[in-house]
Specification:
Blueprint lengths: L2 E6 L8 E7 L8 E6 L2 E2 L5 E4 L2 E5 L7 E6 L4 E6 L1
Antiparallel strand pairs: 1-2, 2-6, 3-4, 3-7, 5-6, 7-8
């Protein structure tokens, strides 16, 4: 099971680099299959850094609702900010 423990920054213009922190965020980049921000697929801008950190650039959208899917777990997590 994986957990999202934090997202920063909590606001910013399109193109903002967002850091997602948590536990068990996959074992390598191949485990990260989808990252959506406000319904927009952003996995192509996502970088799997470690089991505890992913970074992604925000796209155009209003507000921030982040969905993350991992292949290894076949589960997803939703973070509302």
């Amino acid at each position: 099971m994986f957990f999202i423990t934090g997202v920063s920054p909590k606001e910013g213009p399109p193109g903002t680099l967002i850091t997602i922190r948590g536990d068990n965020l996959g074992t390598d980049v191949k485990d990260l299959i989808s990252v959506k921000i406000c319904g927009v697929e952003m996995v192509l801008t996502a970088d799997w850094i470690s089991r505890k950190k992913i970074t992604v650039r925000s796209g155009l959208g209003v507000g921030m609702c982040i969905y993350i899917w991992f292949l290894i777990f076949l589960l997803y997590s939703t973070v509302f900010i």
